[in-house]
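Field reference: sequence -> structure
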Amino acid sequence: MKIQLRGLMVLALLLWPLASLAQTEPSQTEPAVMEVAVRLSPPFVMKDEGGAYHGLTIELWEQIAAVNNYQFRYHEAGLEELIDGVADGQFDVGLGAVSVTAAREQRIDFTLPFYNAGLGIAVPAVAEPGWWTITKRFFSLEFLTVLLVLSAVLMAAGALVWLAERRHNRDEFSTTKLKGIGAGFWWAAVTMTTVGYGDKSPQTALGRGVALIWMFTSVIIISSFTASITSALTVNKLSTRVQGQDDLVNVRVASVPASYSASWLDRENIGYQQNTNLALALTSVQEGKADAVVYDAPLLKYQLRKNFSGLTVLKDVFALQDYALVLPPEASTREAINRSLLRHIRSAEWRQSVQRYLGDTL
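Structure field:
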């Protein structure tokens, strides 16, 4: 009996460390590392020279991860690769400026939206006219041509009235060619502009007949030449061919394939030049190879503010869309992520981040 008790005690002593190890093993298990796909979409996702990611969406995700004690690592991916990878379970989360669409919702899930955006149009900028720009128009070939033609018409009318009046009205229309035609030119200009000084007037029947015809002709001529002179002097602020989305069908449009803007252009049956990224599309407009770029308005404004001069984004925003984080279908983390997301986008910290990256005030 004593031998049996001693055997049990020895067995218990041998099994006790194993039991302790079994009890402590679950608590020593490290949490799973989440695989996070990131698509470069400045200013929402950017990458510095050291390879570190930053941006508006990155800040949002890292705040969510900190609240929920998520461990993660980033994987850079294109838009299609990001969506396919999340749908197939390769990635646990997708980050970028990813628009929520019905077609994508069939394959993947989204969090609640964190930013409301829309499409914009980037076009060549037109400088506002200054005093020197307007002054130079007075010496332009177009304006000088108008003045030359007008002077020729006045000279012709003046010569006709001088021929009719030179022998019978020598006091007002000299028989000398230079002075006589000069007087006729003066009379024609005064009559055309309806100033009516009265210092010179035809006296003969032939001269009055010429004057009558000239008066009626002047009404038509002055209207035409006024329009021509105005056109020659006007600096057109809206010289760009694109004023809104309705003009896109008549110009060369550039965009990025597989994007929300590309889907909108396809639905509207608007052809476009395909560029692998937004920077190349904007460069094509700068170089005159395209007339406009259609893309997400926040991304257009950021790129123009940082990297491109001579371009501007039109004020109208259309085809409104929402940006959200990308999740696998029926993701177990969705509720926790949404709660953290809602708390953060309602904070002053988020408003400051939006102002810093986009210049928008929420």
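Note: The longest helix spans residues 205-233.
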